[in-house]
């Protein structure tokens, strides 16, 4: 959990070093921009590339999720039943 929190903080700092144009269109970020962003954030270029890789993986996952209607329904049903169970646990305490 701590590692995930630290990584998210690092990603936030990296994103703060990006221009609005780069935030809107990450495809613009090539080698020279990676180096500039890394210098501005005080991290290494590999950290910037990791953020971009994570972003692309998340984007693909969301695209796949949105395209699969059956999976989306199953997940929504599961999430709502888990939410109800958590709510019941909170109420009973």
Walk me through the structure.
The chain is mostly helical and 93 residues long. The chain contains five helices and no strands. It has helices at 2-16, 20-24, 31-41, 45-67, 69-92. Helix 1 packs across helix 3 and helix 3 (31-41) crosses helix 4 (45-67). The model has no long low-confidence stretch (mean pLDDT 84).
Query: Architecture in CATH?
Result: Orthogonal Bundle
CATH class: Mainly Alpha
Overall number of domains: 1
Low-confidence stretches: none
What class do helices, strands and sheet pairing give? mainly alpha
Order of helices and strands: HHHHH
**What percentage of residues falls in helices of 4 or more residues?**
over 70%
Name the average pLDDT: 84
Q: What is the alpha-carbon Rg in Å?
A: 18 Å
Number of helices: 5
What percent of residues are in strands? under 5%
Strand count, sense and barrel status of the largest sheet are: none
Number of E-state strands: 0
CATH superfamily: Signal recognition particle, SRP54 subunit, M-domain
Question: How far from one another are the termini?
Answer: 26 Å
How do the helices and strands line up, and which of them pair or pack?
Blueprint: H1 2-16, H2 20-24, H3 31-41, H4 45-67, H5 69-92
Helix pairs in contact: 1-3, 3-4
Keywords:
93 residues, single chain, elongated, mainly alpha, 434 Repressor (Amino-terminal Domain), 5 helices
In short:
With 93 residues, the protein is mainly α.
């Amino acid at each position: 959990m701590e590692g995930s929190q630290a990584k998210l903080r690092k990603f936030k700092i990296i994103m703060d070093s990006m221009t609005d144009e780069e935030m809107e269109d990450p495809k613009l970020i090539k080698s020279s921009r990676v180096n500039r962003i890394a210098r501005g954030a005080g991290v290494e270029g590999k950290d910037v590339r990791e953020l971009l890789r994570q972003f692309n993986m998340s984007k693909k996952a969301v695209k796949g999720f949105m395209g699969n209607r059956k999976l989306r329904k199953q997940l929504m049903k599961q999430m709502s039943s888990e939410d109800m169970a958590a709510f019941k646990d909170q109420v009973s305490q």
